[in-house]
Design brief:
Elements lengths: L2 H7 L6 E2 L5 H12 L11 E5 L2 H10 L13 E7 L6 E2 L2 E2 H19 L3 E5 L4 H8 L6 E11 L9 H8 L20
Antiparallel strand pairs: 1-7, 2-3, 3-7, 4-5, 6-7
Helix pairs in contact: 2-4, 3-5
Length: 187
């Protein structure tokens, strides 16, 4: 599969079925993140791969928002976190978020290439998730990535918009809404 095919295949599907999570899959996924660029090669990203059934279920039941009920079908959840001092500190820019985002995108594309769904979410209780994962207070929990295999069976409890997005990719903004040539021009 070409890179463009992997990017086109990547979707935030919610209809999932379980898949075996192996140590090899986790190590390869982490290795792909390891190759991402970062400021002065500081590699500020940190990940917790949660796949052990008891903790995974606890995280799904206690840490996710109601709107992410679909994520209970996940085979793994990856917690993405970092801390500002793990990366370059340049003026008021929080560069660690950019570098961690790039490494996480590499991981998402790798998991997509492996035939999996890797759906990042914002709908979680950061205090509860940090407590369950024993994550220190000083760490910034950025996102959770829900991992599973795409299912063709769409659950009845899905909202209408969720059912639609399973079948057809939601529309993307036209290029002229977010790119500029040579300088910013107010649109």
């Amino acid at each position: 599969m070409t890179f463009e095919e992997v990017v086109n295949r990547r979707r935030a599907y919610r209809a999932l079925e379980s898949v075996e999570i192996t140590k090899e899959l986790i190590e390869k996924t982490a290795h792909i993140a390891q190759l991402a660029p970062s400021c002065f090669n500081k590699q500020p990203w940190r990940y917790i791969f949660v796949f052990e059934k008891i903790l995974l279920t606890k995280l799904q039941n206690e840490g996710l928002s109601k709107g992410n009920k679909w994520a209970k079908a996940a085979s793994m959840i990856i917690a993405v976190f970092s801390r500002i001092d793990l990366d370059c500190v340049i003026s008021d820019r929080q560069y660690y978020l950019f570098d961690t985002g790039m490494a996480t995108a590499f991981m998402i594309l790798h998991l997509t290439d492996q035939g999996l769904v890797a759906h990042p979410i914002a709908g979680f209780d950061p205090v509860k998730v940090k407590e369950l994962l024993e994550l220190p207070d000083e760490m910034h929990l950025i996102t959770l990535i829900i991992v599973g295999k795409k299912s063709d069976k769409i659950p009845d409890f899905f909202e209408d918009y969720q059912k639609k997005s399973e079948v057809k990719r939601p529309t993307r903004k036209p290029l002229d809404e977010f790119i500029y040539m040579n300088k910013y021009i107010k649109k």
